[in-house]
Amino acid sequence: MSTEAQRVDDSPSTSGGSSDGDQRESVQQEPEREQVQPKKKEGKISSKTAAKLSTSAKRIQKELAEITLDPPPNCSAGPKGDNIYEWRSTILGPPGSVYEGGVFFLDITFSPDYPFKPPKVTFRTRIYHCNINSQGVICLDILKDNWSPALTISKVLLSICSLLTDCNPGDFEAWPALPPSQLKWNLLP
Prior knowledge:
This protein is an alpha+beta fold. The chain has one domain: Ubiquitin Conjugating Enzyme (Roll). 35% of the residues lie in helices and 12% in strands. It contains four helices and four strands. Strand 1 (75-79) and strand 2 form a beta hairpin. It is globular, with a radius of gyration of 27 Å. The N and C termini lie far apart (70 Å). Pathway: Protein modification. It catalyses: S-ubiquitinyl-[E1 ubiquitin-activating enzyme]-L-cysteine + [E2 ubiquitin-conjugating enzyme]-L-cysteine = [E1 ubiquitin-activating enzyme]-L-cysteine + S-ubiquitinyl-[E2 ubiquitin-conjugating enzyme]-L-cysteine. Residues 55-189 form the UBC core domain. One of its GO terms (molecular function) is ubiquitin conjugating enzyme activity.
């Protein structure tokens, strides 16, 4: 046997009677490990940021468990995918309101400062309402100056349902007056 053949036979990938196919697999796995390492270096975050993420993520996880077990009436909410900070919510038009029979989709975005800063909640479904503008932005005091860390997404969704039942002209957003018969629900672009 040549010296080169002995080196191949003594290598860790071929000892123990492995086949040529195993050699190719181990050779192909090496570059994958090398590619992963730089990503870890690029993703460094400060300990302060990590603590914020940890606090907010724990709170969001807790709220997710609560809303899954006991959702507010006519509402549902949860993460869009793997990102705990991006949620999708569905609200059914409150019975007895002009929105009865409507199905409304909302986006909920949490910041790393949650629950000390309010989530950003916007309608994805086009809706005519004096407190919701044409881009789906909701004019609701608890999503702005009256936010409190004691509030939860369940309470926010209940407040939005209440807003759909009773318009609050004090928080009026510029919408022309349309009769309820002309209301249409479409997804915003």
